[in-house]
Write a structure and sequence with these properties.
Number of domains: 2
Oligomer: single chain
Shape: elongated
Helix content: 55-70%
Low-confidence stretches: 8-13, 226-231
CATH class of the largest domain: Mainly Alpha
Order of helices and strands: HEHHEEHHHHHH
Number of strands: 3
């Protein structure tokens, strides 16, 4: 009887390990969402050991994630106290961030008006479309990120380096409240529409109209949560 020789089973495929950066980003997204949703409250202490246990990952990506969240202004590290949740208060928005943004963006938008190119306007229109798609999908991270990028694009086009430097200093806190507020809009699609109004004002070339529009736009965040129609 002839022996049938069967081929040896193939070695199991060696799957690529998930990069540490991916694990870190996964932790960032979970903790950020918990802060924005109020599941983690301002003043609450976060420990690497507890987060590692809850999220089922090692401490290294937890440590890296907390550093990123600190850069975003959502947590703070203190000697002998560890890391605590900061969150974003309505008082900070109304009394600090909104006034700074009004002064900064009124100036930057008026300077950018004559410097924006067609490529810049194409980029702004693309960001508005991204906002509309994100609103329909209730993708609040993308909605907030597109909003941030819209404002930074105009500020960068103003060619005022001090304005861009100041913007990037407050940007983590602005991003935090954009993301917080994204879930409170009565009409999420109005976010895109309001930014389209800003584009129209910029194209019209009327400095007074542009500064009035951007000021009204920013002041929306001074309204109590739940009453906003756009960002």
């Amino acid at each position: 009887m002839t022996e049938v020789i069967r081929p040896a089973p193939a070695a199991a495929s060696q799957l690529r390990a998930v990069p540490t950066q991916s694990r870190r980003q996964h932790v960032v997204e979970i903790v950020r969402e918990a802060i924005m949703a109020g599941e983690l409250l301002p003043g609450q202490r976060l420990t690497e050991a507890e987060l590692s246990k809850q999220l089922g990952t090692s401490r290294a990506p937890i440590r890296e994630a907390l550093r990123q969240l600190e850069q975003e202004g959502l947590v703070a590290s203190y000697p002998y106290r560890g890391t605590e949740v900061l969150g974003v208060s309505q008082e900070e928005i109304e009394e600090v961030l909104v006034p700074i943004r009004i002064t900064l963006e009124r100036f930057a938008f008026s300077k950018a008006m004559s410097r924006l190119t067609e490529d810049d306007y194409t980029q702004l229109e693309t960001l508005v479309q991204d906002m509309a798609r994100a609103a329909e999908a209730k993708d609040f991270d993308t909605l907030a990120e597109s909003d941030i990028r819209f404002h930074e694009t105009v500020i960068a086009a103003s060619d005022q380096r001090h304005c861009l430097q100041m913007w990037r200093t407050i940007q983590p806190r602005v991003r935090a409240y954009f993301r917080r507020d994204a879930t409170t809009y009565v009409d999420h699609l109005a976010v895109a529409a309001q930014h389209e109004v800003l584009i129209t004002a910029l194209r019209a070339g009327d400095p007074d109209a542009v500064t009035a529009e951007i000021e009204a736009h920013i002041k929306i965040h001074a309204h109590p949560a739940g009453t906003r129609t756009h960002a």
